[in-house]
Amino acid sequence: MTALHDYRAPCWLPGGDLQTIWPALLSRPRRGAAPDYIRERWQAPDGDFIDVDHLPAPRGAPWLVLFHGLEGSSSSHYAVAFAQAALARGWHFSVPHFRGCSGEPNLAPRSYHSGDFEEIGWMLGRIRDYADGPLLAAGVSLGGNALLRWAEEAGSTAAPLVRALAAISAPLDLAAAGAAIDHGFNRLAYARHFLRTMKPRALAKWQQHPRLFDRDRLTAARTLRDFDDCFTAPLHGFCSVDDYWRRASAKPHLAAIRVPSLVLNARNDPFVPEASLPNPNQAGPAVMLWQPDHGGHVGFPAGHFPGHVHAMPEAVCDWLEAAGVNLRTPPPSPAPLSSSRGSGLCRARSARSAALRRILRSSLPADPGGSAGHGPHRSDSRGCRPSAARCAPSIPSSPSGHAISAPLTVAGRPASIAEIFGLPSARRMAIAP
User: Could you tell me the pTM of the whole model?
Assistant: First the structure.
């Protein structure tokens, strides 16, 4: 039995590549418990839109916001596992999709990137306006780096929005991560995988906004560096890919964080090199580093063959609960986790934490909520305001085949987040610190 900071993968799944690929493909979340999301569409400050998937909980419950990774969504395996962990605790759960990641192309001449801290702050602010319980945030890979960049830029002003946050497998040094993913086996296995969806999505953006970027260069891109240099960097106000990666990396600014933050990185992550990870002297007093030898990239499988992916979300939620809900300093040693037993998780929680969870669970209905991817961006003045028809919420099927529920309506219009969760109007509600 080990703690998550020195987690060891099951003996049948050695190496960072297997610990990355296998959980994403085969060590799936529990069957028969696909989240029954409620989708809401928000209009962005630049006139574009983003789609947010919610799972409701009783009023006053903690609210977990998850920022997905590169080309991810609310149906990614880690998002489903986090959703199930939140449901088990009686928490609200929301996944704001980065631009163009919800199943429908966004409208503005921009996309999303690893340092999009202004977007993160806006999303958190929208939810904070309605949340009447503690707000917690987690980010995975690209989303984790962007979340940390927001906390770094926000400094002491982050605390009124969130109580605690966590970043999982975040590429804190984007230059190091970019070089790693574009080299050798990684280029064949991972870079090619991402580019398979990123390039068509970028070309669709060119169709929306001709001459927005060099189409021929993008078509010829064979690495993530090439892609970021011809697409991501110029669309978001960066001079070059090197400027983008430098300004967007969270590692140089970790000491500026003033809200309790967990940073979890496996040392065998295939495209986040161990040598690029921060040490405690670089992190600052508000940041806790968990750097186990095993885990891969957003993997952390546990249990008997074929394994499961619940160990990491459970341990992260335990830490967030201790830091942001119970308002106590999380212990240096995180919740113990076993990779050899069937459950994969053996928790040692305080009596106060367990009591809170019992209270939250006791207030849930019998079937709560249904069955149980860099620096500041620049808003572009050419952003298109969507028409009423284009703004109507869409209900795409998730990539994993999970059905996304139809949006709730009130008087023939899509319900607002306040109406979905039965919360008072933001104009009338005092924002809790």
Answer: 0.77
